[in-house]
Amino acid sequence: MSQSQTAQAQHLPVATRQVGRLAQSLMAMTLGLFIVGVVGFSHIDVIHNAAHDVRHSNAFPCH
Amino acid sequence: MSTFRSIVFSSVIAGFIVGLIVTAVQQFSTVPLILRAEVYEKAAEHKHEASAPPQAILVHDHADHDHGAEAWEPKDGLERNLYTAGANILTAIGFALLLCGFLAVRSGATGEPISWHEGLMWGLAGFAVFTIAPGLGLPPELPGVPTAPLLSRQIWWTIAVLATAAGLGLIVFRRSMPAAIAGVVLIMLPHLIGAPELEHVETNVPSSLSHQFVVAVTLTSLVFWSLLGGLTSAAFAYFDRPASA
């Protein structure tokens, strides 16, 4: 294997890893938004009542 | 360790610690004010129910959601505080996932780990985006203070958050004059449109109590975002080491 081939082989996985990193980060961010959405914004009575003080304390729109 | 696992580990650890600390802080800052406001709220409700005919209560705006007699709610005292702690921890984990996902993209782009200090700065950006910006138009409200319909406020809150995040992004990442001007305009836009509000607000909750609440919420949120930024970035720098990749 020539030097340029070695360099290429080392280069490609880094690029793929970068894409993977972006996709995984976006997945984590979506999960985070979903959790905040349910705790802070759900209109379901039971969730509202359980998280009532947290919604007020975070100034999420409430009531 | 995969990036996703590193983000989740860091967020759960940081979110758990921050959620517990903020629950303790709230016991001295926001919760006593909420409990005091609820005394006024309940007094007003009883007066309202006593004076209104039964059918009027059924069509009353509040009757079908938060004050519905049949909906479960935690008992005051320990049970209520435990649910508050749980919701605080979940909120902190949720925001930590959002913040840490962003930090992962950023450290991936620069090739440098994020220091706790830089994490603190991004935490403060979260404070500006999620507390200051929406709070300007929709100040933190105590129970018993009438407000515009919930959905319209939730939509405006979301628009204010997105516009502020996008505006700050333009200013920080596109280092050009037109982008900076566009960023500032974007941040101002939701406020120029105006948050939904009632024309006439009648409440027996004292305005001094409401003012104290705005200060308490804002300061508690500052503690929340500072801790979340610092701890999430420190945890992520630990789990995302090259050796464990």
UniProtKB/TrEMBL annotation, chain A:
Residues passing through the membrane, by range: 26-44
Keyword Transmembrane helix (UniProt): yes
Source superkingdom: Bacteria
Keyword entries, A-Z: Membrane, Transmembrane, Transmembrane helix
UniProt cross-references to InterPro entries, sorted A to Z: CbtB_put
Protein name, as recorded: Cobalt transporter subunit CbtB
Organism of derivation: Bradyrhizobium macuxiense
TrEMBL record, chain B:
InterPro entries attached to this UniProt entry: CbtA_put
Keyword annotations of the record: Membrane, Transmembrane, Transmembrane helix
Name this polypeptide is given: Cobalt transporter subunit CbtA
Transmembrane annotation, as ranges: 7-28, 82-104, 116-135, 155-173, 180-198, 213-239
Entry annotated with the keyword Membrane: yes
